[in-house]
Write a structure and sequence with these properties.
The complex is a heterodimer of chains A (442) and B (55). Chain A has 442 residues and is mostly helical. Chain A has 14 helices and 4 strands. In chain A, 64% of the residues lie in helices and 2% in strands. The chains are: A mainly alpha (442), B mainly alpha (55).
Chain lengths: 442, 55
């Protein structure tokens, strides 16, 4: 062979390094694309769960959550993740690459990783905002929702991620907190944030009768809602793919460095999805909760998707899937809370169950940077996440109530937000003719 | 000129105006201002549409 065409060791190494970097980019690129399907799902889900008179307004709200979280996550969200892993005091040096004017925060031929990881994280961020979005449909002001979505999506969840979903996060390094699939920083935080908001937002007009008994307000398209839930599940495969680190030079790892395989995640995600459906079916016999239960099942197994024996994940998911509708019923009847899509029960409660379950069933597994997994570490970490979600959700929305900025006027709510705010009709034959956002008689 | 490079040889940071921090600062500030304006505009739109729906 001609010696001039035989690659040197250095050339071979450079080729392998570039292939590894590009393979990594390709992997997270498609994870991110799949996660966009989560938002298609949330969009369909929320529009279907809204009454005909609010269908488009709910859609606009959901789309705007995505639109505002992405730039604000660029402005400060990514910096929070890199800087705040130690608590409330930032590490400016570690976060220098995350400031929005950094050389890594844009096209850079020597950095194949930053943008693709930022993309995956921003989709996680938008997911948290969408979780809250469903809980507040049909009565929140759009502007208030956008502000809350930014606080949750570009602030609160990523602070939680920095603490408990980062190799050096203090929950990981000090308490051995372990949460492979972001059940804590995404689902638990978003569910409790949503709970804090709906306490101040109040129920939709007509949700409770004079005696305080709940009155069902059904969305205008249950099939759309159920298909939306299935889309969320599809997107979850991108979400969970984004939870595993592709190094290209060795075994996959969790985000905090412990070895993992996609095969393990495949076993447990699919079986947990099934378990959640069965659990909810046994309790409710209806498809909205079956699909929500499937989601609850995956979330409840998420902290240990890379560790569980699959039938154990199945049993945990059955439990979470059966508990979710009961929790939703309980908070509705007992506390008169109106959570139209069961966001707290599905995300908040299943996240809590998942983190505690891992403490019960996976105690003793070693961590790379910190103590081994323990029940107390998981429980304490879950409580921190719950507080981190609930406190800002409650107090910011309370402040908005005091300023009269949280809720739409009652007359607008009764008329329907599509008629009042959206210059377009979802189903023209189903709404009165209008002129200048008022109904008219032809 | 928006290009921070004159050759692809050894090029690293290639985003527009990467070598002009003042312009980067202006664009970033403007984009933050536009984002805030988007929220304010939403608030104004709501207030306008709610006029006919006050108690």
């Amino acid at each position: 062979m001609d010696a001039s065409v035989v690659p040197t060791n250095l050339e071979l190494k450079a080729l392998i390094d570039m292939s590894t970097a590009i393979n990594m980019e390709v992997f997270y690129w498609w994870c991110t694309a799949l996660m966009v399907i989560i938002h298609a799902g949330f969009l369909a889900y929320e529009m279907g769960a809204s009454r005909l008179k609010n269908a488009l307004a709910s859609g606009v709200k959901n789309i705007l959550a995505f639109a505002f979280v992405v730039p604000t996550f660029f402005f400060f969200g990514w910096w929070i993740y890199l800087a705040m892993y130690g608590g409330f005091s930032p590490d400016f040096e570690a976060a220098a690459a995350g400031v929005p004017w950094s050389a890594s925060m844009g096209p850079n031929l020597t950095d194949n990783a930053r943008g693709i990881f930022w993309g995956a994280f921003v989709l996680f961020a938008a997911t948290t905002a969408s979780i809250m979005s469903g809980a507040v449909i049909e009565r929140i002001r759009m502007s208030a929702f956008i502000i809350l979505a930014i606080i949750l999506g570009s602030g609160v969840w990523i602070l939680a991620a920095s603490w408990g979903w980062h190799p050096d996060g203090w929950l990981v390094s000090e308490w051995g907190f372990h949460d492979f699939g972001a059940a804590g920083c995404v689902h638990l935080v978003a569910g409790f944030f949503a709970m804090g908001v709906i306490i101040n937002l109040g129920a939709r007009i007509g949700r409770f009768d004079i005696q305080g008994n709940p009155v069902d307000i059904e969305g205008h398209s249950m099939p759309m809602t159920i298909i939306g839930l299935m889309l969320i599940i599809v997107g979850f495969f991108g979400f969970l793919g984004g939870c595993i680190i592709y190094s290209g030079t060795g075994q996959w790892t969790t985000i905090f460095g412990t070895p993992a395989t996609l095969s393990a995640v495949s076993f447990n995600t699919l079986i947990a999805f099934s378990g959640g459906i069965i659990g909810s079916y046994l309790v409710t016999r209806q498809p909205f909760w079956m699909m929500s239960g499937g989601l609850a099942g995956i979330i409840s197994a998420a902290p240990g998707l890379e560790l569980y024996y699959p039938p154990l994940a199945f049993m945990i998911a059955i439990f979470a899937g059966s508990v979710a509708p009961m929790v939703d019923k309980f908070i509705t009847r007992k506390f008169k809370l109106d959570d139209p899509v069961g966001a707290f029960a599905v995300h908040g409660m299943s996240g809590l169950i998942g983190l505690i379950a891992l403490g019960i069933f996976a105690s003793g597994y070693p961590n790379v940077n910190g103590p081994a997994i323990s029940f107390t570490g998981q429980l304490s970490g879950a409580l921190v996440m719950a507080a981190l979600g609930f406190i800002p959700g409650y107090f910011v929305s309370l402040m908005m109530v005091k300023m009269g900025l949280l809720r739409v006027p009652p007359k607008a709510e009764v008329a329907g937000l599509d008629l009042v705010e959206v210059p377009l009709s979802a189903y023209p034959d189903g709404l009165p003719a209008r002129s200048n956002n008022k109904p008219i008689t032809l | 000129m928006a290009s921070p490079i004159t050759s692809w040889e050894g090029a690293e940071v290639i985003f527009t105006f990467a070598d002009k921090p003042v312009i980067i600062g202006l664009i970033l500030s403007l984009s933050i201002a536009v984002t805030i304006f988007g929220i304010v505009a939403t608030l104004k739109h709501e207030n306008k549409t709610y006029i006919d729906y006050q108690d």
